[in-house]
Write a structure and sequence with these properties.
The complex is a heterodimer of chains A (about 250) and B (about 375). Helix content of chain A is about 25%, strand content about 25%. With about 250 residues, chain A is of the alpha/beta class. Chain A has a 9-stranded mixed beta sheet with strand order 9-8-7-10-6-1-4-5-11, sandwiched between helices. In chain A, strands 2-3 form a two-stranded antiparallel sheet. With about 375 residues, chain B is of the alpha+beta class. Chain B has 3 domains: about 5-120, Acyl-CoA dehydrogenase/oxidase, N-terminal domain (Butyryl-Coa Dehydrogenase, subunit A, domain 1, Orthogonal Bundle), CATH 1.10.540; about 120-225, Butyryl-CoA Dehydrogenase, subunit A, domain 2 (Beta Barrel); about 230-380, Butyryl-CoA Dehydrogenase, subunit A, domain 3, CATH 1.20.140.10. Chain B is about 50% helix and about 15% strand. Chain B is built from 11 helices and 10 strands. Chain B has helices spanning about 5-25, 25-35, 40-50, 70-80, 85-100, 105-115, 230-265, 275-305, 310-340, 350-360, 365-380, and strands spanning about 120-125, 140-145, 145-160, 165-170, 180-185, 195-200, 205-215, 220-225, 265-270, 270. In chain B, strands 1-4-5-8 form a 4-stranded mixed beta sheet, with helices on one face. The longest helix of chain B is centred in the middle third of the chain and has 36 residues, at about 230-265. Chain B is globular. The chains are: A alpha/beta (about 250), B alpha+beta (about 375). The interface of A and B includes residues 14, 186 and 189 of A.
Chain lengths: ~250, ~375
């Protein structure tokens, strides 16, 4: 069974991002970039399926600038067998990404398309769902548990207020939630092996996908700064403030 | 000169920084410090599983075959986390001596175990009053047939408390202070005649003093040509000192970040104290020293594995001098800027400050490096 894992290069989750002075976006100059944490969980799940003998090949695919090969190499150090970079310097919207991934899927014919549920930079949470619609595959989003048996996948989904279990007929698109697994650290020998694994470079034009975005970013603003709290002298004072000032009780 | 890391080096750095961040919080570090071993055996095991204990070891012996840059990346991240594991003492310094001086049999027998983290080494080279001089060796080795008998003492053997095998320098000829006549021996710490007095150093790592009383070492325990190892000891000490620069740099960066955060947070006279120009000047001076230290660490890393030469030694002495100066300056300024909290046992900065001051005395202090730089400059 072949698994295709989509990964995205994003600002490292430890970086405190700053908005550009002209409010056109986030300042990425000299900022550390990493693999999107949810994509890392997706890679880990694919590797675990391979270790269980269910998957036979893992193909990591990323769409982004040339430097996104670093994240593909990381995926290969974690256990992916080969990588595909669809190189573009344009910032792509979810639909364009889903269209490209659908074309890659048509070419690669994977049984499972693993993705992160959303990227930590744009937080759209759309690509998986769009990809499922474009390919016509079954979808299991926000997976916190995945079992694959024969041509069926059982996905425990994290939904508002509880868990939902769905059974999907393969091929399927599955997106990883935070609790699906805890990704491993790449081992040094695997880092060295990753260098030798094949990495293909393509462009959106190779897949005949029009990447022009229909969405325009007008303004990016940092979130409002949190105001300082206050100390109250007694429980009575606290209750009074909650009742009369905050009006929450 | 290209300062960019290769893809593999970048991945190594990313993996290391994440590993230390996830598994070596300050609170965990303090519990490792208080443990019987004085470091985390679980973290050591994890370093081994990730292949990190093999970074400085040759590929032929199960290691990664890393050079100065890889050692720099390793030590910098461990320095940032104030890690207590004896990576510098064992994997870089002592294993470096073994790689350079050991014969095929010794290397094949020992190095794979070192690379896999199963065996820890320590180099016992200094003695009371030796004051960073590797030729000041009073410990003696007497030969009887194929066997050597070692007697004397060794002081402050960093990593010696947890080492499974010690590399001990002893005099087989000449007088105390002669560079000629020094030999290196492999000594098992539990061998008859060895007394190991272990203690924690003020900055965290464990060390020990060794008392050797007619300790028997067979022919297989002699490293290199008897009486002719001094230049190798010096070369490997310089190589280890380059890695110590990186450890100090990681700690300096963390001390700087903690201080900057504190200045932005601590309020006085109705504003964060970082708004005061006098304190901004101090931060700017710290940043300047940190930049110099970064450049000199890169220089040291790029030269550490070069063949021995006066120029290499001179530049490494210069690097160490700048780093020891920067380490003390940043530690002292960070404490000044923090005030009393900077000296608090429960706060990481106090331990960074201690580590930085002690690292500026480890493998040579400011004066030693400056003197060596001046001597080599005069000789050139």
């Amino acid at each position: 069974m072949k698994i295709l894992v989509g990964i995205k290069r994003v600002v490292d989750y430890n970086v405190k991002v700053r908005v550009k002075a002209d409010q056109s976006g986030v300042d990425l100059t000299n900022v550390k970039m990493s693999m999107n944490p949810f994509c890392e969980i997706a890679v880990e799940e694919a590797v675990r399926l391979k270790e269980k003998g269910i998957a036979t090949e893992i193909v990591a695919v990323s769409i982004g600038p040339k430097t996104a090969q670093e994240q593909l190499r990381t995926a290969m150090a974690l256990g992916a067998d080969r990588g595909i970079l669809v190189e573009t310097d344009e910032p792509l919207g979810s639909l364009a990404v889903a269209k490209i991934l659908a074309k890659v899927a048509a070419e690669e014919q994977p049984q499972i398309l693993m993705m992160g549920k959303q990227s930590i930079d744009t937080d759209n949470n759309q690509t998986t769902q769009m990809l499922a619609a474009l390919t016509g595959y079954a979808q299991g989003t926000f997976a916190s548990e995945l079992t694959v048996a024969g041509d069926k996948a059982t996905v425990k989904r994290e939904i508002d207020g509880g868990l939902q279990t769905v059974e999907l007929k393969l091929p399927a698109v599955i997106s990883a939630d935070l609790r699906l697994n805890e990704p491993r650290y790449a081992k040094l020998p695997d880092i060295m092996k990753a260098k030798k694994k094949p990495l293909d470079t393509k462009t959106p034009a190779d897949y005949g996908v029009d990447t022009a975005s229909k969405v325009k970013t007008l303004k990016v603003e940092p979130p409002a700064e949190r105001a300082a709290g206050i100390k109250v002298g007694s429980v009575e004072e606290l209750v009074n403030k909650l009742k009369n000032e905050a009006k929450v009780v | 000169m290209d300062f960019n890391l290769t893809e593999e080096q970048q991945m190594l750095q990313d993996m290391l920084s994440r590993l230390v961040r996830d598994h070596y919080s300050f609170e965990k570090r303090m519990s490792h410090y208080a443990s019987q071993e004085g470091y985390s055996t679980a973290f050591w095991q994890q370093l081994a599983e990730q292949g990190l204990t093999g970074v400085p070891i040759d590929e032929a012996y199960g290691g990664f075959g890393g050079g100065g840059v890889e050692n720099m990346l390793l030590m910098k991240e461990l320095g940032r986390g104030l890690c207590l594991e004896p990576v510098l003492a064992s994997q870089i310094f002592a294993a470096g001596l073994l790689q350079q001086l050991g014969n095929k049999e010794q290397k094949e027998k020992i190095l794979p175990l070192v690379a896999s983290g199963e065996l820890k080494l320590a180099a016992a080279l200094t003695e009371t009053n030796s004051h960073y001089s590797l030729q000041h060796v009073a410990c003696r080795a007497r030969q009887q047939g194929d066997t050597w008998f070692l007697s004397g003492q060794k002081s402050v053997v960093v990593g010696g408390a947890s080492a499974d095998l010690l590399l001990v320098s002893a005099r087989t000829a000449g007088e105390q202070g002669d560079p000629e006549g020094i030999s290196l021996f492999l000594v098992e710490p539990w061998a008859k005649g060895v007394t190991r007095n272990a203690y924690p150093c003020i900055d965290g790592p464990r060390a020990c003093d060794l008392l050797l009383d007619e300790v028997m070492v067979g022919r297989g325990g002699v490293l290199g040509k008897p009486g002719q190892v001094f230049t190798t000891l010096q070369y490997q000490q310089e190589r280890a000192a380059a890695a110590a620069c990186a450890e100090a740099l990681g700690s300096m960066e963390e001390a700087f970040t903690l201080t900057l955060d504190y200045l932005k947070t601590r309020q006085q006279f109705g504003q964060p104290i970082g708004k005061f120009q006098a304190l901004q000047h101090r931060m700017a001076d710290m940043r300047g020293e940190l930049e110099l230290a970064t450049s000199m660490t890169l220089l040291a890393a790029s030269l550490a594995d070069h063949p021995p030469s006066d120029e290499r030694s001179r530049k490494l002495a210069a690097s160490r001098f700048i780093i020891t100066r920067a380490a003390r300056f940043i530690a002292e300024q960070a404490i000044q800027l923090h005030g009393g909290i900077g000296m608090t046992w429960e706060y990481a900065l106090a331990h960074h400050a201690k580590r930085l001051v002690m690292l500026s005395h480890h493998l040579g202090d400011e004066d030693t490096h400056l003197q060596r730089f001046a001597d080599l400059l005069k000789a050139s």
